[in-house]
Amino acid sequence: MSRLIQRFLGSGEALARLQDHAARLRRLQGTLEAALPAALAEQCRVANCKDGTLVVSTRNGATAVRLKQMLPSLLEHFARTGHVLDTIKVKVGTPEQVEWRAPPPERHISATAKQGLSAFAESLPADSPLREALERLVRRGRE
């Protein structure tokens, strides 16, 4: 399957350029990870590289500040590994979006229903899990 994808990606000129650019970004990501401490490397991703400018995305502002302090040594590290860059831009990425969920609906139990549930719970054996659940329901239920 991998060969089919490689053949497809290499078939057109635009797709071949895209494949080359993606491969270059993967190499740059590996070089970036090698240059940074492990805790910092997991917070940074190579976003793009164009016209000698490498764009690195970070998860938060603190990581961006730390990375900006390291820019001179990072440029030197990239040059030693064969990736000559003019500048490195650091950008704070957007936080991961958490899927929104509607709050659970509030459920109300009338006073009559509470009395009925309490009476039924009292008729069950003391060690019954159902009795414990019903008593908890009556305690937590809102009128």
What does this structure look like?
The termini are far apart. The model has no long low-confidence stretch (mean pLDDT 88). A three-stranded mixed β-sheet has the order 1-2-3. The longest helix has 23 residues. Strand 1 and strand 2 form a beta hairpin. It folds into two domains: 91 residues, DnaA, N-terminal domain (GMP Synthetase, Chain A, domain 3), CATH 3.30.300.180; 30 residues, no CATH class. It has 143 residues and is an alpha+beta fold. It has seven helices and three strands.
Distance between the amino and carboxyl termini: 61 Å
Q: What is the arithmetic mean of pLDDT?
A: 88
Describe the main β-sheet briefly. 3 strands, mixed
The CATH architecture assignment of the largest domain turns out to be: 2-Layer Sandwich
- Which geometry do the CA atoms define? elongated
* Helical content (DSSP H or I, runs of 4+): 55-70%
Number of domains: 2
Note poorly predicted spans. Answer: none
Order of helix and strand elements from N to C terminus: HHHEEHHEHH
Number of strands: 3
Q: CATH-wise, what's the superfamily of the largest domain?
A: DnaA, N-terminal domain
User: How many helix segments?
Assistant: 7
Main-sheet strand order equals 1-2-3
Share of β-strand residues:
5-15%
**Rg of Cα set:** 30 Å
Summed up:
The protein is an alpha+beta fold.
Task: Fill in the keyword field for this structure.
single chain; 143 residues; alpha+beta; GMP Synthetase, Chain A, domain 3; 2 domains; three-stranded mixed sheet; 7 helices; 13% strand; DciA-like; DUF721 domain-containing protein
